[in-house]
Design brief:
Helix content is 31%, strand content 34%. By secondary structure, it is an alpha+beta fold. It comes from Mesorhizobium newzealandense.
């Protein structure tokens, strides 16, 4: 890394503060900037965490471990968050969990996820717009590398099942693998959200799905 580039980064951090690069509620302890990747060591700013089982707040730290997650790119560079996750003791007498790891919320960083919520949202929209392989190739160019299989998994996981009666729907083709495998995407036109992905684009499959919705 050149001296001029390092000085530029130092000026940027003094002006904007490295904390602004992190997710809401996190602080940046260290930033490592490479040629095509930025590593950010982050941790939660709050001193306590809430037990996911009983809801009791705890400040007693039992241990810590590191977790890596991809985030939105910065200046044409991939971003990897090295998150320090704390384990806490739960002091509630009747709680079945004595030790728990702090949670960050699905919109920020879901449990076991290797992508932040905001990055997964972008990946989801790319998958809906372009399909599997084309979306994966475009995401690679945007410095958000993701396999086409992972991309399709994100689309399927984030597809909402209808909770209320559907009044207006839109049906169109969806490319699981362009030129080889196609399905059908059904959207709720009132809420402007995808409802389901059908495994093929046969008329009989769509009719069977509609009949099932009408019965329920």
């Amino acid at each position: 890394m050149s001296r001029g580039f390092r000085e530029g980064i130092s000026v940027m951090q003094r002006r904007f503060g490295s904390t602004r690069l992190a997710l809401a509620g996190f602080v940046v302890g260290h930033a490592e900037i490479g040629t095509d990747c930025v590593f950010l060591d982050v941790r939660v700013a709050a001193a306590s965490a809430t037990c996911p089982c009983c809801g009791t707040s705890s400040r007693r730290t039992q241990s810590r471990y590191l977790r890596q997650a991809a985030d939105l790119p910065i200046a044409g560079r991939r971003v990897v968050l090295r998150v320090t996750v704390r384990r806490f003791w739960c002091d509630a007498v009747l709680c079945r969990r004595r030790i728990f790891a702090e949670r960050f919320g699905a919109a920020v960083l879901a449990p076991l996820s290797r992508k932040t919520g905001r990055l997964e949202t972008i990946v989801h929209h790319l998958g809906l717009a372009l399909g599997g392989r084309p979306a994966a190739a475009f995401a690679e160019r945007l410095m958000m590398p993701v396999s086409n299989d992972t991309l399709l998994c994100v689309v399927l996981r984030r597809t909402e099942q209808p909770r209320n009666r559907l009044s207006f729907i839109g049906i169109d083709d969806f490319a699981f693998r362009r030129g080889q495998r196609y399905g059908t995407i059904v959207c709720d036109l009132e809420r402007r959200k995808p409802v389901t992905l059908l495994p093929d684009r046969e008329q009989a499959t769509s009719q069977a799905w509609l009949a099932n919705i009408l019965r329920s």
